[in-house]
Specification:
The structure holds two protein chains of two kinds. Chain A is mainly beta. Chain A contains no helices and eleven strands. Classes of the chains: A mainly beta, B mainly beta.
Chain lengths: 121, 109
Amino acid sequence: EVRLVQSGAVVKKPGDSLRISCKTYGYSFTNYWLGWVRQRPGKGLEWMGTIYPDDSDTGYNPSVRGQVTISSDKSINTAYLQWSSLRASDTAMYYCARPANKQWLDAFDMWGQGTMVIVSS
Amino acid sequence: EIVLTQSPGTLSLSPGERATLSCRASQHITGRYLAWYQQKPGQAPRLLISGASNRATGIPDRFSGSGSGTDFSLTISGLEPEDCAVYYCQQYVDSPGVSFGGGTKVEIK
C-alpha cells in the first residue's frame, strides 16, 4: 500500500528555521517525483515545488523560489521542505503529494495527511 | 504561466440534482492535461479525474469530466450528501510547474 506520512504540526516564531518531512511507503521512492503543495487558511491549493529523489533534480514555483528548500534522503525514503527564516505568511497546511505517473508534471494521486505550520510571535 | 479560473465560486443544490463545475484556462491546454480534485474539510485533496475525463481508481461513476483546449468541466450526476466539498482543477502541462484553480464549493441543501 502506498502511503505518504508527514511530520506533525508545529508552532514557530518569525525568524525560526524549520524542516518538515514526508516519509513514503509502498513504492519505489527514487522512481517518482514528489511535490509539495501549500494551502493557507481558508484558501486554495498552491504548488510549491517538486523533487526527483534519485538525483535530487528540483523545480520550484517562482513565487517561493529562494524562500524554501526541497530535499530528499533516498536511504530513508523521505522528502523534506525547509525554511531558514519563517514569516507569519508561511502559516499554512503543507501537503506532500506523489504524481500518478513517473513524470514531473502530472496529476497527484497520492497525498500525505498534511502538516500544519503556524508562525506566530 | 497558465491561470485557471473556476466558476461558480459556490454551488448550492439539492440531493439528486446535477452539478456542473467550470474550469477555464488562460491558454490552450495541450494533451488535455487537466485534473480535478475533491477536498472535504480537514482532509487532503483526493484525485477524481485526470486527463480531463479519466476517473481515478475508486471514484464513483457519477463523477465525470469533459472538455478540451481552454474549457473544461466536472459534472456530478445525482448529488449525494457526501459530495459536499471544495473542488479544484489543476493543469499539468505548463512550465514552470503545475497550477490549481481557485476552487468551487459545492453545498448540499
